[in-house]
Amino acid sequence: MRLLALDTATEACSVALLTGDEVFGHFEEVGRGHAERILGMVDAVLSEAGLVLGMLDGIAASVGPGAFTGVRICVSVAQGLAFGADLPVVAVTTLEALALQALAAGADQAMACLDARMGEVYWGCFSADPARALMARGAPAVGPPASVSVPFTGPFHGIGRGFGAYSDLRALPGLNLPPGACDALPDARDMVRLGAIRLAAGDGMDPADLTPTYLRDKVALTEAERAAAKRALE
């Protein structure tokens, strides 16, 4: 199988290309400027593999959750590339990609957590699955750190920058945090492997049906909310 994967939903911008058993990947932590980098990174991995878009079987796109603008960039770029080359797309979330990093390292269960800003985190729990690589243990969620809890079926290996942003999360009962876990970001190299499994299982879709996973519809705090948050820290 030949599959391209894209992710611009967080501070990272990454692209990966799976061809057979080989993965070509580019990963940069850019903060901003994803739109200016993503197509160049796509061209780079295609050139490295000696392929063009029309030779692929599909495209895996990160649909969030993450930065609103970054999620929209990824979905729209994936749609444009897929429409142009007449390819199906498959959706992968940032939380799934993070969890897969922990599961691929040997964990049986993983809790992925990203900083959602505005005093909140995105989080979700997953377990290893022989056929599908991972299985969600409930719906992904967004909320304040105090709303996060580890399922009673723990222990879970935590991964993601949400744990780095809020120290209280690192003390959750039933949570293990391996070295480096608090610095992890989603990576298209994990998305491309998960996307290939889904495409092979028949989960490919028309690019027009690809939709973002925002989890919340609020982009920023009001001035009053920012002032209240500042007072709480004083």
Q: How many separate helices?
A: 6
Number of domains: 2
- What is the beta-strand fraction? 25-35%
What do we call the CATH topology of the largest domain? Nucleotidyltransferase, domain 5
SSE topology sketch:
Blueprint: E1 2-7, E2 12-19, E3 22-29, H1 34-49, E4 58-62, H2 68-85, E5 89-92, H3 94-104, E6 109-117, E7 120-129, E8 133-136, E9 141-143, E10 156-159, H4 161-165, E11 175-176, H5 188-200, H6 223-233
Parallel strand pairs: 1-4, 4-5, 6-10, 10-11
Antiparallel strand pairs: 1-2, 2-3, 6-7, 7-8, 7-9
Structure description:
With 234 residues, the chain is of the alpha/beta class. The protein folds into 2 domains: 116 residues, 2-Layer Sandwich (Nucleotidyltransferase, domain 5), CATH 3.30.420.40; 89 residues, ATPase, nucleotide binding domain (Nucleotidyltransferase, domain 5), CATH 3.30.420.40. Helix content is 32%, strand content 27%. Strands 6, 7, 8, 9, 10 and 11 form a 6-stranded mixed beta sheet that branches. A 5-stranded mixed beta sheet has the order 3-2-1-4-5, sandwiched between helices. A hairpin with a 4-residue loop joins strand 1 and strand 2. Helix 3 crosses helix 5. The chain is globular. The C terminus is likely disordered.
